Amino acid sequence: MPPVILSRKVGELEVLTYLVYCLQSREGVIIDPAGEPEALVAWMEERGVELRYLLATHGHPDHVLGAARLRELTGAPLALHRADREFFTGEEGRRVAAEELGLPLELEADVVLEDGQRLAVGELEVEVIHTPGHTPGSVCYLVEGNLFTGDTLFVGAVGRTDLGGASLEVLLDSLARRILPLPGETVVWPGHDYGETPRSTLAREREENPYITDFILAE
Ligand SMILES: [Zn+2]
Ligand SMILES: [Zn+2]
Q1: Which domain holds residue 118?
Q2: CA dihedral (139, 161, 188, 109) positive or negative
Q3: How far is the CA of 104 from the centre of ligand 1 (A)?
């Protein structure tokens, strides 16, 4: 049975926070707990969802602002890729958060993720795909044909690469090697609603996303 996927815009930067759960077991995850922790708890409770993980697509503070409080409220661990835990607990990562993004960094990851790791959530499997570029430890989460891309891939665009720790070259390489080989019908659920539609498919992005058509496929 496919996962149930709900989204809402959270915080001043309107991060798309996702609730993804297994209908049989009612076990679920929150992808990018960006704030409004009490509202997110109510969102889960209305549906009887038991939270297994708080999954961060990357360590930028706007995507994890609600994580510490949600962890207290639900007991679910925050999971983040190893490279972003290292980067954002280091000096350069703290500077990026404070000076470039102007947000406090409260990043205490309980679960450190590696590329290829699979997390069981009820009957669902969540696969971790390491896609560095926007940050060193950016990941996409693949759940039964649904790809949660954070700030790596937007509808019609890619994430910023002007911030400390970012690289457009590395991001395009991640897309080319790790994301574009996935099936065209894979649904893309981005970290912000910056495109013509709030979600897309990989087939459509291959046709219409200028970063893919001009920088990757034209090579
Ligand atoms: Zn970001
Ligand atoms: Zn973002």
Answers
A1: 4-216
A2: positive
A3: 14
Q: How far does the centroid of ligand 2 lie from the alpha carbon of residue 63, in Å? A: 6
Distance from residue 24's CA to the centre of ligand 2 (Å) = 31
Dihedral angle sign, alpha carbons of residues 205, 32, 53, 170: positive
Q: How many CB atoms lie within 10 A of CB 89?
A: 14
| SS3 (DSSP) at 140 | strand
Contact 55, 40 (CB under 8 A): no
Is the separation of the CB atoms in 27 and 1 below 8 Å?
Answer: no
Quick count: other Cβ atoms within 10 Å of Cβ 195?
Answer: 18
**Are 87 and 97 contacting, i.e. CB atoms less than 8 angstroms apart?**
no
Q: What CATH number did the domain enclosing 18 receive?
A: 3.60.15.10
Question: 193 C-alpha vs ligand 1 centroid, how far in Å?
Answer: 13
> How many domains in the chain?
1
Give ion ligand 2 contacts, CB < 5 A: 151, 191
**Model confidence over 100-144: pLDDT tens digits?**
888 877 778 899 999 999 999 999 999 999 999 999 999 999 999
> What is the 24 CA–ligand 1 centroid distance (Å)?
33
> 67 C-alpha to center of ligand 2: Å?
15
Q: Which ligand is nearest to the CA of 59?
A: 1
Q: Kindly report, residue by residue over 45-64, the tens digit of the pLDDT.
A: 999 999 999 999 999 999 99
Give the SS3 label for residue 125: strand
**Closest ligand to 164 CA?**
1
Q: What is the rounded distance in angstroms from the CA atom of residue 92 to the CA atom of residue 121?
A: 34
